[in-house]
Amino acid sequence: MSRATRFIAWGLLLLLAVVLIAMLAGWISRWNAARGPVQTVSASAEQLERGRYLVVAADCAACHTVPGGAPFAGGFPLKSPFGTIHGTNLTPDPDHGIGRYTADDFFHALTRGEARDGHQLYPAMPYVSYRNVTREDSDAMYAWLMTRHPVAQANRANDVRFPANIRTALHGWNLLFAGRGIPTASQGNSAQWERGRYLVDTLGHCGECHTPRGRLGQLKLDRTLTGNADLGRYAAPDITPDGLAARGWDADMLQRYLATGDSPRAVASDEMLTVVNLSTSRLSDGDRSAMATYLLGDRAPSPKTAATLASTENAPAQRLYFNLCAGCHGRDGEGVPNVAVSLRENSSLREPDARNLIVAILDGLPVHDFPGTGRMQDMPGFAADLSDAEVAALSTWLRQRHGGQTTAVNETQVRDLRKARPRDTAGGH
């Protein structure tokens, strides 16, 4: 055996030893974690109510509760470019939930992304945003969760692809990306603005969806809240002050949208409807006002109006609109309350990117149940009825008629979005 061969062999043996030691340490850590004392919590009624409110503000239920399932028992699938990650059991069950977590363990997991047994959490749990949750708030959230009914429901296995499934590598990811401060997306220094910043950037973790991401899944912090099309079928729009003002939003509209899911500019759909139903609609008026103040800044820009292009009158695509859309949306896009959204100056039609409009035309929309009694009927998808050219023409006409957008929608974008349709919507209506 040559000297080089012996060197390589010793190197491989050393590497194997390190891996085995790491595996043994992890196994011992998990073994100890599974046998730690079951925690009991005593808290005042005031602290429990504060904890309940903060859990709502942090929107924990959205990822830790399956629709129709036990509250906070986990299992909700979160799709990501790296695979599917399931929300974990947050009930005080000692075997599957957080029943053996101390308040210190909970704070560490919430703000540093490391579980009690030492394994790294995937950043789908937004600990990058939660990093600035105060210890007092964390303790209140812990106390409220620990006084819920324990549910003995095992956590579902994740389906994350190699190499993202190597949890140890998350130490490096955290070192590179988790400790960076989140730059503010607006300007201000009032108490209202500061409160809104905490609600939007930290508890509400809005940037997790509305900030674009890099190849490794990290937030692109030089473009905070400027919109992101990488996480779902629908793109999360730009919610910076300039982005909102360009689409006609003001503070009153934002507050109404956060409270009811409905506003003159848009209705909440897809994942944002869940956010409204489980979180923002349940906040106080004062906190929703603070969120609007932060999103627009202490000196909010004036909302812009959308001009209608004269060429849209009697245009060929107008016939498509009359045949397919006018029955619900009205002859000139005025909409019908609780039936179909108004298209006039609609925020989605005013997006620089036509993606969300195209997806809505291709896939349709489900029934929307808003907080309270508000409702919107389902909208059929037209993927099976319209060609790429017809979808592009209809989208272009709608954006020019009601969105103030002059650029024609490209057939290639329609074709690409049609090909990317999920299987459960690929059959048309």
Automatic annotation (TrEMBL):
Keywords: Heme, Iron, Membrane, Metal-binding, Transmembrane, Transmembrane helix. Residues 46-149, 191-299, 312-402 form the Cytochrome c domain. The chain crosses the membrane at residues 7-28. It comes from the Bacteria. InterPro entries: Cyt_c-like_dom, Cyt_c-like_dom_sf, Cytochrome_c-type_DH, Membr-bd_ADH_cyt_c. This is Cytochrome c.
